[in-house]
Amino acid sequence: MIELQQISKIFNKGKVNEVVALNNISLAIKEEEFIVVLGANGSGKTTLLNIISGTEFSSQGKVIISDTDVSRLPEYKRSKWIARVFQNPLSGTASDLSILDNFRLASIRTTKKKLTIGVNDAFRNRVRDRIAELGMGLENKLEQAMGTLSGGQRQALTLLMSVMDDSKILLLDEPTAALDPRSAAIILQTADKLIKQYKLTAVLITHNLKEAHQYGNRLIRMSEGEIQKDLSGNEKNVIQLQDLYAWFSG
User: Fold this and answer.
1) CA triple 83-84-90, angle to 5 deg
2) For residue 232, is pLDDT > 90?
C-alpha cells in the first residue's frame, strides 16, 4: 500500500544549521495495517508523515502508494488516497461553517467539482446517524457552527469526516496531544473503530507510551531520524508497557 524507499530528508543542507530529519529510511506498510510510530520530539515522526502525505518532499528516495510513484506529487494530488488528522483540532475543520456543511465539503474533497445539490435529506440523515455513534449529542446540532465546539468535539468530527470520501489511508499526527484525557480516549477509540470498519491503512504518530501499547498491530520506534525498532505480529502483541518505558529510560 505504502512503500518508502531509502528516504532521507535534510533541512538547511550545507549550512551550519543543517538537520538530518530522516536518514535513509525504507519502510513497507501493508494494506489495512495500523502502524503506531513512537518517538521523542525531534525523532523524525512528523517529518515521516509529511513525506508520506506530500506536505514535504524527500531529499532523496521514493514514495510509492498503491504502486504509483508519488515522490513529487504535491499534497492535494495525494488526497485521493490520503486523509489526515492533525494535532491541532482547529486544523481539520472550517470554523465559520456548520457541522453539516463541513461534512459536505469532506464528502466531495477528492471528487471533480460540478454543479449539484449541496445537501439533501439522505445526506443529512447519513451524517446524523454517523455522528450519533460518537455519543456526544451532536447529531441534533448539525446547523451549529463548527467553531463553537470544544477541541475534543471538533477532533472527533474531523475523524468522521476523514472517511466521508474514498480515501484508504489515514494519517494521525498526534491527534490527542491537545486534548484532555477523556477526549483523548474517545478520539483513539473512534479512530480504532473507523480503521477496522472501513479497512483503512493507518499511521498514528505519538509519544504517549500507553497509546502506543494499546493501539495498532505494528509498532515502530524512531530516534534521530532512523527506525530503531519495528515490531509486528506476536512481537507487538506480547510487548508490555514497562518494556516501552525501558526504551526511553536512558
Assistant:
1) 130
2) yes
Residue 167 has pLDDT above 90, yes or no: no
Three-state helix/strand/coil letters over 36-74? EEECCCCCCHHHHHHHHHCCCCCCEEEEEECCEECCCCC
Spatial separation of the C-alpha atoms in residues 164 and 18, rounded to whole Å:
40
What distance in Å separates the CA atoms of residue 147 and residue 97, rounded to the nearest whole number?
8
CA pair distance 93, 96, nearest whole angstrom: 9
- The answer to whether 29 and 1 are in contact (CB under 8 A) is yes
What the block records as the C-alpha cell of 181 is 484525557
pLDDT digits 0-9 by tens, 3-27: 999 999 999 998 999 999 999 999 9
pLDDT of 115 reads 46
Whole-number Å distance between alpha carbons of 78 and 49: 13
Taking residue 174's Cβ as centre, other Cβ atoms within 10 Å add up to 19
pLDDT for the residue numbered 112:
61
pLDDT of residue 119: 80
Q: Alpha-carbon distance 12 to 65, whole Å?
A: 27
CA distance from start to end of the chain? 35
HSE toward the beta carbon, residue 47, CA cutoff 13 A? 27
Where b means 16+ CB within 10 Å and e means fewer, 178-216 reads bbeeebbebbbebbbebbeeeebbbbbbbbbbebbbebb
Domains and CATH numbers, the chain: 2-247 (3.40.50.300)
Residue of 190, 187, 186 whose CA lies nearest to 175: 187
pLDDT at residue number 110: 64
